[in-house]
Write a structure and sequence with these properties.
Strand content: 25-35%
Largest sheet: 8 strands, mixed
Radius of gyration: 28 Å
Number of helices: 10
Strand order of the largest sheet: 8-6-9-5-12-14-16-17
Number of strands: 31
Length: about 550
C-alpha cells in the first residue's frame, strides 16, 4: 500500500507485479529479500503485508434440512430487498440455479495463479482474471468438481434466494427480491500441505489481493449506477483482538462505505472468545458472528469486542450447485443474513444511510451477552417495525402527549421538590394529567432543570432528558449534568445521570437545548447552543455541541 497512486511505479520496481488495481494505491508483487528491503526504504510505501489466502468460513452440516428454515425466511412486512443488489464475493455462483436464476446482474472473476503455492485459477476460461457473463458461474470450468466451490451458491441463496413455487426449496432467502453481483475471488490449491488431507485436496482459498480486486470491482459497479447495498465476504484468516486498520483492504472498505455500500464480513469459525479474523477486524467492516436457533452462541463462532452483530448460522438450508439444496453451518452463513437484511431495510427506509441501517439492526436486535461483551442478534421484523420518533409520544401509541416537570414550593427547611406529570393525548384532546414520578422532599429543584423530550434509547417511545444545574464553584465557574427519564410506556423510570461535566466546566445558564435524531441512527440526541463570554468589543461567541445517544 502506498500513500497515493503516484508512488506505485517506484514500489512496483522492487519486484514482479502479480496484481495491479485501477483505482487503489496498492500493488501486489513477488519480491526477493532485496526487494523487501527496497520497499521498506521507500517513503511513499505505507505498509507491506503478505498476500495471505483465507479459507471459507463454513462447513457441511449433517443436521436435518428442516432445522434451517427459520433463518432463511426472515423477510417481513412486504419488504423483499427489491430495487437493491447484493454483491457476493465468494467461490462464484451457479447462475442457472432456480433459486437464483434471472437475478445475476454482473459477474467477475479474480483468481490468482501462484505456482509456488500450488494455486491455480478457478475462472472458467483458466486465466487469473475474467469479467462478464459466465465469469463467476460455478456451473462451468474447474469449480464444477472442486471441494468447497459450492460455498458461494449457498451464501448467495441465504442473502437473496427466492423459493416461490420451487419444490424442496427454502421459502426464501432474506432478500428474495434483490439482485446479485457474483464475484469469484477464490483460487484452487492442489497441495495436501495446504489443504490438509488427500480427501480435501484440491481445496479453495482466497488471496487478499483477489478480495481487493473484487471490492474495487464492486465500487466501480456502484459508481456506474448498480444499486449495490452490501458486499458479502464469508471468509477470514488470522486472529485479531484489536482493529486492524493498517490492513490493505481498509481503504476500499472505507470507499465503499462512503459510496453507500456496507462490507459485511464473517467473523470466523475458530471459537475465539475475544477475537475475529481478517478482514472482519477492519473497523469500517460489519463483522458477523453466528447463533443457533435457540439464541445460543454457535460453538464455532468467533466473538468479542470487534463483533458488530450476530445472525443465525447453524444448519442453514440454502442452494448448492446443480439445482439442489443443503445445510451448512458457519459464520459464512450468518454474514449473508445481514447483507440481505440491509437490502430489505434499504427498501423499507430508502432515505436512511447504510450506517443508519446498521445502527437500526443493532438497536432493534436481541442482546446476546457472553464473557467480555454483549452483541445484538439481528431481528429483521423488529427493525422493519421501527417507527421514527414522534416528539412527545411518551406511551408509544403514535400520538404526541404532554409532559411537565413541575417544581413545587421549597420545603420549610429550604430543600426542593419536583414531580414529572404526563397528560396523554386522546386524539381529540388530552386526558387529565397524571403524576408519573416524584422526587420526594429535598432532592430535585425544578428551577434548575432544562428538559427536552426525544426517543433517546430508540424503543419508539419518547423519553425526557434534563440538563441540571449544580452549585457553581467558588470562582463562579459552572457545573452541570445530563439526566434521562426513560419511558416505560405507562410512566417513567427513575432518572439516571448519563453525563456530568465536573465542577468548573459547564455553565448551565449559557445553554439552550433541543433534541432530535441528528445522526440518523434511530435514537434522539441532545444538541446545546452554548454561549461563551463576549469579546472585549462586546461581540458574541457561541458554539453548537451535541450529546449523541448511545
Amino acid at each position: 500500500v502506498t500513500k497515493d497512486r503516484t508512488d506505485l511505479p517506484d514500489a512496483a520496481a522492487a519486484g514482479t507485479t502479480r496484481q495491479s488495481f485501477e483505482t487503489l494505491p496498492v500493488v501486489t508483487l513477488e519480491v526477493d529479500k532485496q526487494g523487501l528491503q527496497d520497499l521498506a526504504s521507500q517513503p511513499g510505501v505505507v505498509s507491506v503485508t503478505e498476500d495471505v489466502p483465507s479459507r471459507p468460513t463454513a462447513d457441511d452440516d449433517s443436521v436435518s434440512l428442516s432445522s434451517a428454515d427459520t433463518a432463511t425466511a426472515a423477510t417481513a412486512a412486504g419488504a423483499t430487498g427489491q430495487g437493491g443488489t447484493i454483491a457476493v464475493l465468494d467461490t462464484g455462483v451457479d447462475t442457472s440455479h432456480p433459486y437464483l436464476k434471472g437475478r445475476i446482474v454482473a459477474e467477475a472473476c479474480f483468481s490468482p495463479i501462484v505456482p509456488d503455492s500450488s494455486a491455480t485459477s478457478l475462472c472458467p476460461n483458466g486465466t487469473a482474471q475474467q469479467e462478464g457473463t459466465g465469469s463467476a458461474n460455478t456451473g462451468t470450468g474447474p469449480c464444477v468438481t472442486v471441494h468447497g466451490c459450492d460455498h458461494g451458491t449457498h451464501v448467495a441463496g441465504i442473502a437473496a434466494g427466492n423459493g416461490a413455487n420451487l419444490t424442496g426449496a427454502p421459502a426464501a432467502g432474506i432478500a428474495p427480491g434483490a439482485n446479485i453481483v457474483a464475484i469469484q475471488i477464490f483460487s484452487q490449491f492442489n497441495s495436501e500441505d495446504f489443504c490438509g488431507t488427500p480427501e480435501d485436496t484440491p481445496c479453495v482459498a482466497s488471496f487478499a489481493s483477489a478480495q481487493l480486486a473484487g471490492l474495487e470491482k464492486v465500487l466501480q459497479l456502484k459508481q456506474a449506477g448498480t444499486p449495490i447495498i452490501a458486499a458479502n465476504l464469508s471468509l477470514g484468516s488470522g486472529r485479531y483482538t484489536t482493529a486492524c486498520d493498517n490492513d490493505a483492504r481498509k481503504k476500499v472498505i472505507d470507499d465503499l462505505l462512503t459510496a453507500g455500500v456496507a462490507t459485511v464480513v464473517a467473523a470466523g469459525n475458530n471459537a475465539y472468545d475475544n477475537a475475529v479474523t481478517s478482514p472482519g477486524c477492519v473497523s469500517s467492516a460489519i463483522t458477523i458472528g453466528s447463533t443457533t436457533a435457540d439464541d445460543e452462541l454457535s460453538l464455532f463462532t468467533n466473538r468479542g469486542p470487534l463483533l458488530d452483530l450476530f445472525a443465525p448460522g447453524n444448519s442453514i438450508l440454502s442452494s448448492v450447485p446443480g439445482g439442489g439444496y443443503a445445510t451448512k453451518s458457519g459464520t459464512s452463513m450468518a454474514a449473508p443474513n445481514v447483507a440481505g437484511a440491509l437490502a430489505v431495510l434499504h427498501q423499507a427506509f430508502p432515505d436512511k444511510s447504510i450506517t443508519s441501517l446498521e445502527s437500526l439492526l443493532k438497536t432493534t436486535g436481541k442482546p446476546i451477552t457472553y464473557t467480555g461483551a454483549t452483541t445484538p442478534r439481528i431481528d429483521l421484523t423488529k427493525a422493519l417495525g421501527h417507527t421514527p420518533d414522534r416528539t412527545g409520544d411518551f406511551n408509544g401509541d403514535g400520538k404526541s402527549d404532554a409532559a411537565y416537570l413541575y417544581g413545587y414550593q421549597p420545603n420549610a427547611d429550604g430543600t426542593n421538590h419536583s414531580a414529572l406529570w404526563l397528560q396523554a393525548s386522546t386524539g381529540s384532546g388530552f386526558a387529565n394529567p397524571v403524576k408519573k414520578w416524584d422526587s420526594g422532599g429535598g432532592s430535585w429543584d425544578g428551577t434548575l432543570s432544562k428538559p427536552v423530550s426525544g426517543d433517546f434509547n430508540g424503543d419508539g417511545k419518547s423519553d425526557v432528558a434534563v440538563l441540571y444545574k449544580y452549585a457553581n464553584t467558588a470562582d463562579g465557574r459552572g457545573h452541570s449534568a445530563l439526566w434521562t427519564f426513560t419511558s416505560t410506556g405507562t410512566g417513567f423510570n427513575n432518572p439516571a445521570k448519563v453525563w456530568d461535566s465536573g465542577a468548573g466546566s459547564w455553565t448551565w445558564d449559557s445553554s439552550k437545548l433541543v433534541a432530535g435524531d441528528f445522526n440518523g441512527d434511530g435514537k434522539s440526541d441532545v444538541a446545546v447552543l452554548y454561549r461563551y463570554a463576549n469579546t472585549a468589543d462586546g461581540r458574541g461567541h457561541s458554539a453548537l455541541w451535541t450529546f449523541t445517544s448511545t
